[in-house]
């Protein structure tokens, strides 16, 4: 009964995670297309160049406490309250620092217009701090449905305002307002759906006790953000805001697909794995099943997106963004494997080994930054190729730790992942060849490639008896008859 309940909660979490992230990314895509048609590469580049500072500040403000609270199992009001006031204090202090550092940031990028834009955009992480503990409560109790509603509502409201400001000619100020409003609506709705409320007792002792665990996650998140935003910083520094905008557009579409799948994983993996961590055999079984599900979804979705990148951009946002197509195709290779890396990181966290996350992510980040700086003279394409290769090869590092911590064997991982990758490559290769006659008709090429690849992949999965596909269909049928 306990196993059945865990399976149901995991499946339900994945379903709501998919609805949450899928719906949010769909809304983001619709409004993103409108904004890309209205705005320029320079507008997007300015926001991308500043986002790394905002994300680093957010990581410092959150300090890994959400996952630390989750790892407590049953945190008390005192634990929540301590983290709440700690987050508020840290975020206020960081905003004051960044407010006065804004001129130095603008000088780094050789762009004086960034001073007040930075000061405005950085308000987002301070606002976010007011909803972090409520988010932790929702996460711990696996309130995936409520989290889905929050994200969709915030995306809809903020995107409508962003488009409205763009239509009024407010350019990158509209993008900054969209970002801040998304955070504000998210924080307000987290308060609405979470029953926990703070009290005016400033006891930091619980936060200090958690800091030994959370500090490693904090440093991990810092290096992760530096990894994710390396291009925005380096392109803005060496090549200016236009090329930073070209890359930001390519990364935007790749992240929309990858984050849909990644959100499903990160919203479920740690709570579920934490429950089974005392049973090593069952832990490996649950992890392998998640690996199969990720591979089943991620490979065709992300590699398929890479196949249609050029015609997708031409049809949706026009030829002015065609220069992003090749970068988008390369980044989609990274995006296909990114959810697997996320599962590995959740595995180490659920085992209480946040130090593993820290040192692995730190060395990965240093490897990426060192290589990108060395290669910047070769141009953006080779920088992206290097970025993709390092991130994919780092999966072997994560796998080594998974084997050391829980006994997950590389051969078992290959058996779980390889069939989906091979079938995807065969389907996409045939689709590319079969649709070559349509290469001068972007809309027809886009639609035919999507339709043919989807039918072929689903057909092969069904005929080959892929258990994960049949389980997914059976679960959806069961939900419809409940």
Keywords for this structure?
single chain; 482 residues; mainly alpha; 2 domains; 22 helices; globular
Write up what this structure looks like.
By secondary structure, the protein is mainly alpha-helical. It is about 85% helix and about 0% strand. The mean pLDDT is about 80.
The helix-strand sequence is: HHHHHHHHHHHHHHHHHHHHHH
Q: Report the end-to-end length measured between terminal Cα atoms.
A: 18 Å
Indicate the structural class.
Answer: mainly alpha
Q: In what range is the share of β-strand residues?
A: under 5%
Count of spatially separate domains: 2
Main beta sheet: none
DSSP strand tally: 0
Tally of helical runs: 22
Task: State the shape.
Answer: globular
Name the average pLDDT: 82
- Rg calculated over all Cα atoms: 22 Å
Which stretches of 5+ consecutive residues score pLDDT under 50?
none
Estimate percent helicity: over 70%
Care to give the gist of this entry?
The protein has 482 residues and is mostly helical. It has helices spanning 2-38, 41-62, 65-71, 77-109, 114-121, 123-128, 132-140, 144-167, 171-193, 205-228, 230-238, 241-266, 269-275, 280-307, 309-316, 325-350, 354-375, 380-393, 395-406, 410-434, 442-463, 467-481.
């Amino acid at each position: 009964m306990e196993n059945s309940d865990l399976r149901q909660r995991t499946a339900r979490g994945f379903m709501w995670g998919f609805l949450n992230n899928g719906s949010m990314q769909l809304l983001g895509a619709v409004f993103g297309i409108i904004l890309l048609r209205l705005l320029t590469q320079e507008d997007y580049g300015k926001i991308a160049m500043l986002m790394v500072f905002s994300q680093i500040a957010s990581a410092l403000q959150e300090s890994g406490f959400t996952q630390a609270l989750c790892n407590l199992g049953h945190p008390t009001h005192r634990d929540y309250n301590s983290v709440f006031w700690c987050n508020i204090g840290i975020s206020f202090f960081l905003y004051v620092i960044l407010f006065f550092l804004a001129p130095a940031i603008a000088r780094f990028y050789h762009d004086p217009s960034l001073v007040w834009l930075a000061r405005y955009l950085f308000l987002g992480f301070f606002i976010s701090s007011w909803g972090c503990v409520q988010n932790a409560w929702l996460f711990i109790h696996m309130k995936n449905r409520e989290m889905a509603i929050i994200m969709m509502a915030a995306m809809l409201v903020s995107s409508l305002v962003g488009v409205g400001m763009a239509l009024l000619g407010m350019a990158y100020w509209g993008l900054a307002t969209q970002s801040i409003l998304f955070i504000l609506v998210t924080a307000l709705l987290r308060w609405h759906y979470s029953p926990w409320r703070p009290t005016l007792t400033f006891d930091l002792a619980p936060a200090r006790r958690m800091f030994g665990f959370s500090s490693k996650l904090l440093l991990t998140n810092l290096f992760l953000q530096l990894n994710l935003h390396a291009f925005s910083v380096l392109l803005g520094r060496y090549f200016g805001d236009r090329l930073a905008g070209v890359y930001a557009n390519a990364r935007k579409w790749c992240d929309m697909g990858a984050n849909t799948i990644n959100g499903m994983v990160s919203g479920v993996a740690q709570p579920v794995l934490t429950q089974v961590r005392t049973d090593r055999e069952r832990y490996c079984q649950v992890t392998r099943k998640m690996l199969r599900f990720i591979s089943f979804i991620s490979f065709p979705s992300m590699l398929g997106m890479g196949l249609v990148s050029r015609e997708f951009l031409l049809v949706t946002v026009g030829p002015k963004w065609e220069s992003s197509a090749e970068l988008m195709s390369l980044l989609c290779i990274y995006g296909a494997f990114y959810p697997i890396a996320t599962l590995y990181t959740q595995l180490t966290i659920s085992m209480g080994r946040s130090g593993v996350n820290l040192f692995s992510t730190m060395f990965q980040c240093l490897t990426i930054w060192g290589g990108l700086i060395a290669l910047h003279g070769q141009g953006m394409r080779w920088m992206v190729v290097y970025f993709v290769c390092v991130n994919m090869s780092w999966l072997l590092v994560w796998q080594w730790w998974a084997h050391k911590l829980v006994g997950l064997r590389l051969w078992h991982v290959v058996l779980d992942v390889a069939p989906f990758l091979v079938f995807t490559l065969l389907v996409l290769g045939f689709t590319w060849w079969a649709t070559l006659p349509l290469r001068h008709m972007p809309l027809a090429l886009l639609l035919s490639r999507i339709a043919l690849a989807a039918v072929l992949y689903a057909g092969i999965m069904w005929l080959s008896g892929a258990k994960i596909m049949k389980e997914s269909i059976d679960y959806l049928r069961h939900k419809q008859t409940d």
